[in-house]
Design goal:
Blueprint (H helix, E strand, L loop, with lengths): L5 H10 L26 E4 L4 E5 L2 E9 L5 E6 L1 H11 L10 E11 L2 E9 L3 E4 L4 E4 L15 H11 L1
Antiparallel strand pairs: 1-3, 1-5, 2-3, 3-4, 5-6, 7-8
Length: 162
């Protein structure tokens, strides 16, 4: 049986370290919702996006370009992704250079009314009775995910509060 001395035990405790993973940022400034981008703005998708580990779990981050040419990053929620898939297909590489419209809707999230930003196909309209975005110029029977079931929406809002 191996018995450690007090010094050995103390040394082991002092030298044990947690394993940390390096968090690498895309290096691009994130646009501030409500300041840099607003309801009704039309933006251009500038890259195919990538999933990054965010403060509240994985986030789908895309580089976008404003009308003045300024580029910045933005995190898209699942409802936004669904609208863009409906309009442009599943391959996000084919979204590069395509337009998206910003729609801001005040919603109750965790008991607090906040502005939730959606990036939707420019021809998408919200269907009032369902709350889903539908592209009127394209035949599509793929419904958008309800905002209450959109886990990224809560993460988006929580990250904006910080």
């Amino acid at each position: 049986m191996f018995i450690q001395s007090y010094e050995q035990s103390r040394w082991n405790c002092l030298t044990k370290m947690s394993i940390y993973k390096k968090k690498v940022s895309s290096g691009v400034r994130f646009f501030k919702k409500g300041e840099d981008i607003k309801d009704g703005d039309i933006i251009t998708i500038a890259n195919e996006g990538e999933q990054e580990e965010g403060q509240f779990g994985p986030q789908d981050v895309f580089l976008i370009q404003l009308n003045d040419g300024e580029e910045g990053a933005i995190s898209l929620n699942q409802t936004s992704l669904n609208s863009l898939i409906d309009g442009y297909g599943e391959d996000s590489k084919k979204w590069i250079g395509k337009k998206a419209k910003i729609v801001v809707i005040k919603q109750n999230v965790k008991g607090k009314f906040v502005d939730v930003f959606y990036f939707v196909h420019p021809d998408a309209e919200m269907v009032n009775d369902s709350g889903q975005f539908v592209i009127s110029t394209k035949d599509s029977d793929i419904p958008a995910i309800d905002a209450e079931a959109d886990a990224n929406a809560e993460a988006q809002i929580a990250s904006e509060d910080n």
